[in-house]
Specification:
The protein has 582 residues and is mostly helical. Helices cover 39% and strands 4% of the residues. The strands form three sheets. It has a two-stranded antiparallel sheet with strand order 1-2. A two-stranded antiparallel sheet has the order 3-4. Helix 17 packs across helix 18. It starts with 7 loop residues before the first helix and ends in a 14-residue tail after the last helix.
């Protein structure tokens, strides 16, 4: 294992580190103990090459320097941002030419012996060798060149093609072209003057025998072609190519009235615009059809799918398919043959489809349903007239048919006179004719309704007893009072015995009722437990194997069942819920 922090070349050159052994277990343990001691603060922390302490809590992968840095000890220099190198501005460049501010008048020691400049020696002098150098003559001392300092540019400054260019040098080019234009205008004016003198004379009047009639129509247009000044402005317009002989102007740039492609939709997620080719292939107004004008730009790809492009593409696909099936056909080599074969193929294909439709109609029938009016007339207005009375009855005309669904309606089965779902009671749906809640059952009619009412328990007159007037005792109390009065008419001994026997019988009835309620509660608890186990079993099954529970009978819960549910209910907020027996 190579020592960390040293490059491979250093390890190869160093013989003593050529064979670096893996640290032993004791050395690894000591290194770990030293690291823990530094973290605890009992041992001083490591220091870098500048004498700064290194935080011992910094992870090893951050504190360890890469091998290509070549560090000799602990350091964090590789984690710090290096010093930014200062480059010269992009506007600075080497000064060219000579200094024109001050010129020497006599020879200076150490200057060029030929021209007298201080910035170079005689062997580097570019001036013609003088017969008598400036060192001996002291005349015509050349000015010194600019002293070029150390200038270091960045990536962009080194590659700036216009850096060091003097814009004043271009003034000579502009002046040269302006002189050429002035000379052209002067020659043209002289030519026009000589032509006028030859045609009209020196006084500018044309002889009467040579007078011409005014030109109209095509003659005037042809005469205007010779006047180049009239169309000088149009010819100088950028982006146009004018042919004066054919009077054709070719526009290869857009005019100011046109809207640029990239200004139609300013959304960043709209169609992409390529500035190099000035193309926008997709529709920039896609997805915004409501506000899109009919004559707006729809993308460059519209041209690819317009005209006969679709037909040519289908012909090419037909040629490829035919070639794969063994037909010697090529669209570009023999387009006439390809067009004729495709025409025959389309005709046979349409004929084959029509034969299939005729065979299906002949076998299954239903041709009369295909002869329907067009779709434009199916939902349009009709001439049918219907007159209704005040009660809503139809007096004249045919009543409008009731709109029905695709499902069967008013289908009565099993002797029922009402459909399923026409009766609802206590959360259950049933038949209105017999008040039966079992679907697909046989109708029992009014007998079933009476039998169901007879089975229903009569409610106890609790409300009547509570609503009795304050001066009148309830019926149950009146019966007990009559019994007490009859018993009081007998002897005192008999009354004592009767009262004791009556109290004992009441207590026995209460005990029997308590035992019965306990038995019912116990049975309800067992049923609740069985229901819980059954629910757990069904939840453990696969969803595809679970049985249906739509035919279960729903009934009103008793007091014992409600009490059993409350006893079995687990409150998750209860801190003792974990100690309950499940």
């Amino acid at each position: 294992m190579a020592a960390p922090g040293l490059p491979v070349s250093t390890l190869i050159r160093t013989k003593e580190n050529a064979e670096v052994k893996k640290p032993s277990r004791d050395q690894y343990r000591l290194a770990k103990e030293l690291e823990e001691a530094r973290k605890a603060g009992t041992v001083p922390a490591e220091q870098d090459e500048e004498g700064h302490d290194i935080n011992p809590h910094i992870p090893h992968y951050i504190a360890a320097a890469p091998w290509y840095i070549g560090t000799q000890g602990p350091t964090l220099k590789h984690q710090r941002q290096p010093d930014q190198k200062v480059y010269a501005p992009i506007t600075d460049w080497y000064k060219k030419g000579v200094q024109t501010t001050a010129a020497a008048t006599k020879y200076r020691k150490g200057a060029c012996e030929n021209c007298g400049a201080m910035t170079h020696k005689k062997k580097d002098c570019l001036e013609r060798p003088r017969k008598i150098g400036a060192k001996y003559s002291g005349d015509a001392i050349a000015p010194d060149e600019h002293v070029q300092g150390s200038m270091e540019h960045d990536f962009e400054g080194k590659r700036d093609r216009w850096n060091g260019y003097d814009p004043s040098e271009y003034a000579q080019v502009v002046e040269e072209y302006s002189k050429v234009e002035e000379a052209k205008k002067h020659l043209k004016a002289e030519k026009l003057h000589t032509d006028d003198v030859d045609e009209f004379g020196q006084d500018g009047l044309k002889p009467a025998d040579e007078a011409e009639e005014p030109k109209t129509g095509d003659e005037a247009l042809l005469d205007d072609d010779g006047n180049e000044d009239k169309y000088a402005d149009d010819m100088e317009m950028p982006g146009t190519k004018v042919d004066s002989k054919q009077r054709i102007t070719v526009r290869n740039l857009r005019i100011r009235e046109d809207t640029a492609k990239y200004l139609i939709n300013l959304d960043l997620s709209s169609a992409h615009y390529d500035p190099k080719t000035r193309s926008m292939r997709e529709d920039p107004s896609q997805g915004n059809v409501a506000t899109k004008p009919p004559s707006s730009f729809q993308g460059d790809n519209v041209i690819r799918y317009s005209g006969e492009t679709d037909r040519i593409a289908k012909s090419q696909l037909f040629a490829w398919d035919a070639y794969e099936k063994g037909v010697d056909l090529h669209l570009q080599a023999d387009p006439t043959k390809a067009a004729m074969l495709r025409k025959q193929y389309e005709e046979k294909k349409d004929e084959f489809k029509q034969n299939i439709e005729k065979n299906i109609l002949a076998k299954y029938g239903g041709e009369e349903y295909l002869e329907a009016p067009p779709k434009e007339l199916l939902l349009a207005q009709s001439e049918s007239f219907v007159q209704y009375s005040r009660r809503g009855d139809v007096i004249r005309g045919a009543e409008k048919a009731v709109i029905r669904s695709r499902y069967e309606e008013d289908v009565l089965i099993n002797n029922h006179t009402a459909v399923w779902g026409s009766y609802w009671d206590a959360g259950n749906w049933g038949y209105k004719c017999c008040h039966n809640f079992v679907k697909m059952s046989y109708c029992t009619g009014m007998a079933g309704i009476l039998a169901k009412r007879a089975k229903e328990p009569t409610p106890e007159p609790v409300a009547a007893e509570e609503e009795a007037p304050p001066g009148v005792a309830p019926s149950g109390k009146r019966k007990r009072q009559s019994k007490e009065e009859s018993s009081s008419s007998s002897s005192s001994s008999d009354s004592d015995s009767d009262s004791s026997s009556g109290s004992s019988s009441d207590s026995e009835e209460e005990k029997d009722e308590g035992k019965m309620s306990k038995k019912k509660l116990k049975a309800a608890l067992e049923a609740q437990e069985l229901q819980r186990k059954e629910a757990e079993r069904l939840l453990a099954l696969d969803e595809r194997k679970r049985p249906y529970n739509s035919m279960t009978e729903s009934k009103k819960l008793t007091k014992e069942e409600i009490e059993a549910y409350q006893l079995k209910k687990v409150h998750h907020d209860d801190p003792m819920s974990n100690f309950m027996k499940k």
